[in-house]
Design a protein that fits this description.
By secondary structure, the chain is of the alpha/beta class. The protein is built from 13 helices and seven strands. The protein has one domain: 3-Layer(aba) Sandwich (Rossmann fold). Strand 3 and strand 4 form a beta hairpin. The protein starts with 7 loop residues before the first helix and ends in a 9-residue tail after the last helix.
Length: 335
């Protein structure tokens, strides 16, 4: 049998061909902006929506200045079980404050927290002077905004989630982060619109979510600008800037902070209904998209409020994102 003689003239074309194949293959893999989303209707919906609103000359083109998207944080971008991260941070501080100042136990909402009696808030509600949100005023009243931010950062990046044993900062949903990056790359301004304290959101929004601090919309504690011999600072007061950024407060604060209706809104609960309704223009001047994350994956995350979310979406014609069926990965650390 005649031996095949390999020369440089044979090797060079092979190397070129291999290089070209590799060069072609890499962009094909990298071209998918939502790799953590499984192929299906919701992934295609997001891709198709962004394409149509960013195609110049198309019938659904939306100018960059009108491309606004709002995402709820807890349960939409960030894990919210077994408790909201903000309350996991606040509850030990409330208990410590009550231990140091027993007179605080005269406030029913404080006593409920100290007694681990969360059923109290089923009647007291979230709002009002003795509601769930009022407990958040007990943690840093009289302290500076800088101190609150430092304490919140230490918790978010240092305290580990009880189930997953990673810092709370890492319990963000990878598919949501991909969607946010994809929207930013296509000229959208993306905002986090959450019931959590705005300073708490600001403590993590840059490093964990990839958005600037000015893109946080949250519940805001009133502050006073204090001047003293050593300088000046903001001091937190025992009151909120109304309205609290939940339910009907969300569209009010979106208008206040952005001044434009979001054409994309993503949430996960009844607390986001009003934000999604604000985004949902029933007689659209421009296209819009509303999505609700459904927590139906007890193996990789949690399962709760499945039927409520399905009902909320069905009655409004909004799109349900199934964590179990639509997401290839839930967290970056679980890949």
């Amino acid at each position: 049998m005649k031996k095949l003689k390999i020369t440089r003239c044979h090797v060079l074309p092979v190397l070129i061909a291999v290089s070209l194949i590799g060069w072609i293959a890499v962009p094909a893999i990298a071209a998918d902006p939502l790799p953590s989303w499984r192929e299906g209707p919701n992934k295609q919906l997001i891709l198709a929506f962004v394409e149509k609103v960013t195609t110049p000359g198309g019938p659904d083109f939306v100018a960059p200045e009108a491309r606004v998207a709002t995402f709820d944080m807890d349960g939409t971008v960030l894990l919210e079980k077994p408790a909201y991260a903000l309350f996991a941070f606040a509850i030990p501080l409330i208990k410590a404050a009550a231990a140091a100042q027993p007179e605080l136990l005269e406030r029913p909402h404080v006593k409920a927290i100290v007694d681990d009696n969360m059923k109290y808030f089923a009647k007291a509600g979230k709002f009002g002077p003795e509601g769930l949100y009022a407990t958040l005023l007990e943690t840093h009243t009289g302290k500076t905004e800088a101190q609150y931010l430092a304490d919140a950062s230490a918790f978010i990046f240092g305290q580990k989630h009880p189930r997953f044993q990673v810092p709370y900062a890492e319990t963000v949903y990878r598919p949501m982060l991909e969607m946010i990056r994809y929207l930013k790359a296509n000229g959208f301004r993306v905002y986090i619109c959450s019931g959590s304290d705005i300073a708490f959101i600001r403590a993590m929004i840059e490093k964990s979510i990839g958005l600037p601090v000015e893109n946080a919309i949250g519940t805001q504690v009133m502050t006073t600008w204090i001047e003293h011999a050593n300088g000046s600072e903001f001091r937190r007061e025992h009151a909120f800037v109304e309205p609290v950024n939940d339910e009907k407060g969300k569209p009010v604060n979106i208008l206040r902070m952005i001044g434009k209706r979001p054409i994309i809104a993503v949430g996960n609960s009844e607390g986001d209904r009003d934000m999604l309704e604000y985004s949902d223009d029933k007689n659209p001047v421009t296209p819009d998209l509303q999505m609700i994350v459904n927590h139906d994956d007890p193996e990789r995350e949690y399962e709760y409020a499945v039927e409520k979310v399905n009902h909320l979406a069905a009655e409004n014609g909004w799109h349900v994102v199934s964590m179990k069926n639509d997401w290839e990965w839930v967290f970056d650390f679980s890949r």
